[in-house]
Design brief:
It contains 4 helices and 5 strands, in the order ααβααββββ. It is of the alpha+beta class. The chain folds into 2 domains: about 5-35, no CATH class; about 40-150, Mannose-Binding Protein A, subunit A (Mannose-Binding Protein A, Chain A). The strands form 2 sheets. A 3-stranded antiparallel beta sheet has the order 2-3-4, with helices on both faces. β2 and β3 form a beta hairpin. The chain starts with a helix and ends in a 13-residue tail after the last strand.
Length: about 160
């Protein structure tokens, strides 16, 4: 038996108290909309070039640089950024044909550490490592990301330098 997305959501959320009619409505709506099984099927990511002239900035400056690119641009999560790192390469540890302007340095992520809200996770494109730094330190470069709906093509990293 195939499990549909609404069934999985209800099961994973342990929503046994949802009235049967509500669950039925969710299933019907998902079927009518052809809801895909995963978020990856809905979106892809579009990456900016390195921002702030490749200089190390603090977290607030990194957020502002991303927002200045326009609607939908944001700091990537640590998982999104970490996925770009190619640990078979070094200095920089990334595909330089796709991301030619990448500094062999740390890049901010939007992911705040669980231990302290004054720190955020960063990814090193010198060696593909991850670490966390104080958000008020000027220690990381910045690259923005945005989601692109399915059916649209993500552009190559934009040369927009903020």
């Amino acid at each position: 038996m195939t499990t549909t997305l609404p069934d999985r959501l209800l099961a994973e959320a342990n929503l046994a108290v949802v009235p049967p009619r509500t669950a039925e409505i969710l299933r019907e709506a998902a079927a009518a909309l052809s809801v895909p099984e995963s978020l990856e099927a809905v979106t892809q990511l579009e990456w900016s070039a390195t921002l702030c002239d490749g200089k190390n900035v603090d977290y607030a400056t990194a957020e502002k640089a991303c927002a200045a690119l326009g609607e939908g641009w944001r700091l990537p999560t640590v998982e999104e950024l970490f996925a770009l790192a190619d640990r078979t390469r070094s200095e920089p540890a990334i595909d330089t044909e796709v991301f030619p302007d990448t500094e062999s340095d740390w890049y901010w992520s939007s992911t705040i550490t669980a231990r302290s809200s004054v720190r955020a996770w960063c990814v090193s494109f010198s060696d593909g490592n991850a670490f966390n730094y104080r958000r008020d330190d000027n220690v990381c470069c910045v690259r923005a990301v945005r989601s692109v709906p399915s059916g649209q093509h993500a552009a190559a990293p934009s040369a927009k330098g903020v």
